[in-house]
């Protein structure tokens, strides 16, 4: 895996323009879909507020907002599974963000590459991928989401 993109951060004016175009929900949040650069694989969905997106654009490291902790969630700060920003895109309605990322390791807290690992097979909801790493190895203890 390569390092974070070397392009400079967008200017403060450009970051403000991007944030102004977003239609945040009544809680001040917007859904963010993380997609792997190159493969296009959908890795996860999380929420972000304006502060998280501003930091993401300024630093190149993807930041979300944890609703359960009511705080910024710098992806990988506990697990080491960092997401480096390649591109941040806003959808046509302004209410969903796509983060194209370089994913270091796995994206899911279950130890899988993607959070989207459950599917219907033979009328049962089953995991279709196995963990690549045990959650205990990522967090040092059993971790619930």
From TrEMBL:
Catalytic activity reads: 1-(5-phospho-beta-D-ribosyl)-5'-AMP + H2O = 1-(5-phospho-beta-D-ribosyl)-5-[(5-phospho-beta-D-ribosylamino)methylideneamino]imidazole-4-carboxamide
Cofactor binding, per record: Binds 1 Mg(2+) ion per subunit. Binds 1 zinc ion per subunit.
Q: Which residues form the Phosphoribosyl-AMP cyclohydrolase domain?
A: 44-117
Molecular function per GO? phosphoribosyl-AMP cyclohydrolase activity
What pathway is it annotated to? Amino-acid biosynthesis; L-histidine biosynthesis; L-histidine from 5-phospho-alpha-D-ribose 1-diphosphate: step 3/9
Q: Which residues bind Mg(2+)?
A: 91, 93, 95
Superkingdom of this protein's organism: Bacteria
Entry cofactors: Mg(2+); Zn(2+)
Q: Where is this chain primarily localised?
A: cytoplasm
> Is this entry keyworded Magnesium?
yes
Keywords annotated in UniProt: Amino-acid biosynthesis, Cytoplasm, Histidine biosynthesis, Hydrolase, Magnesium, Metal-binding, Zinc
Which one Pfam family would you cite for this protein?
A: PRA-CH
Q: Which residues cross the membrane?
A: none
| Quaternary data | Homodimer.
The role this protein plays is:
Catalyzes the hydrolysis of the adenine ring of phosphoribosyl-AMP.
Read off the PANTHER family from this record: HISTIDINE BIOSYNTHESIS BIFUNCTIONAL PROTEIN, HISTIDINE BIOSYNTHESIS BIFUNCTIONAL PROTEIN HIS7
Name the HAMAP family on file. HisI
Instruction: Please give the family membership noted in the entry.
Output: Belongs to the PRA-CH family.
Q: What is this protein called?
A: Phosphoribosyl-AMP cyclohydrolase
Annotated source species: Teichococcus aerophilus
Q: What is the lineage of its organism?
A: Bacteria, Pseudomonadati, Pseudomonadota, Alphaproteobacteria, Acetobacterales
Question: What is the gene name?
Answer: hisI
